[in-house]
Amino acid sequence: MKKTSKTGINILIFIILILVLALGILAIVQYGRFRDQMEEKARQEAQAEAEATVTPTQTPTPEPTPDPSDPEVIREQLIGSIQTAIEENNVNTMANILRYTASDGSITAYPAEDVAEVLLHLKRDSADYWNFFTALRSESTSVNADGESQVLVLSTQDLRKMTNTAPKEGESIQPETPVGEGKMVAIDAGHQAQGDSNQEPIGPGASQTKARVASGTSGCVSGVPEYELNLTVALKLRDELERRGYSTYMIREDNEVNVSNAERAQLASQSGADILVRIHANGSENSSVAGALTMAPSTSNPYVDGQIVQECQRLSQLVIDSFCAVTGAQNQGVYQTDEMSGLNWCAIPATLVEMGYMTNPEEDARMQTEEYQALMVQGIADGIDSYFTS
Ligand SMILES: [Zn+2]
């Protein structure tokens, strides 16, 4: 009994404590709400006061957001694309953006050769690079070319006038003495219609042998065999080099031949040519692989004289660098190999150009176009010019 009443009192005290606590919490919450209301009221009053002082002409304006249809905004975007194109050696992108108004009023693209020349120049000359972009901002307008793509129309009809690559007043377009004058280039279009699996030594005195001529690769989408593409480009390279004053020696001008790689190298060496340029296209089991490279013997090559090896490597480096600068192809550099009969048997400086991968759908399709072939030829010819002038 006694114990029960004591328990009852304890419960009563506990309940009272709970009630006091609840009231306390309620009071705190109410005070908080009251304070928030007061603050909100004060804020509204302050805002009302501030708004009252705003005169009708000072209506608050929203943050300016760039208008995607604003010609100025489009022009800045196009200029940004040109900067990226120069960084990435992408002549195509640059050529697609820059236009001029021809005398008949039509919006016209600049010749790819001029765009490539200006791109290369801008990469080398930083002062001209800034001048070019300053001029671009003051002398261009963005125009919707054909209802889908935006282009920059420049005020000059000669893109090279935007840089100092243009011939000076009174200067003839062709230099007095063409770079190629007195120089001879042997050109070998790789492979032939039928490969020849009969063996030959890979170099003078070598016990190791290889097929006289491998059959080469072919275009995964174009279906064009490598020997055909190689000859197409080789013939265009011949014409371009002759235009630049070189004399040339063609190892083959027909697909129906049978000349081994060793024989090609020996023919080139005996022709009186100063250098040999071998034209090939690459293949890979991985269709996503793309890009260009050149091949040269290594410094430990047992078949090629050390001095010639140095020159092969110098030629290969200059050719691959200008090839990629002009075409925008991914630069896979100079591949050193001592397994190529067509280099090992050669007594003059030689390089083998792998122009691109015929197993890559985009690169295969691109290499079949007249435009890209012209760029490849220009890139190789520029590299040859550099070899003889540096
Ligand atoms: Zn090949």
From TrEMBL:
UniProt biased composition (Pro residues): 59-68
Record-linked InterPro entries: MurNAc-LAA_cat, N-acetylmuramoyl_amidase_3
Keyword Cytoplasm part of the UniProt annotation: no
The protein's name in its UniProt record: N-acetylmuramoyl-L-alanine amidase
Biased composition (Low complexity): 47-58
SMART domains, A to Z: Ami_3 (SM00646)
Single GO biological process annotation from the record: peptidoglycan catabolic process
GO terms under cellular component: outer membrane-bounded periplasmic space
Keywords, ordered alphabetically: Hydrolase, Membrane, Transmembrane, Transmembrane helix
A GO MF label: N-acetylmuramoyl-L-alanine amidase activity
Pfam family name, one: Amidase_3
Signal peptide positions on this chain: none
Transmembrane segments: 12-32
Domain of life: Bacteria
Every MurNAc-LAA domain range: 265-385
Biased composition (Polar residues): 194-210
Region (Disordered): 42-72, 191-210
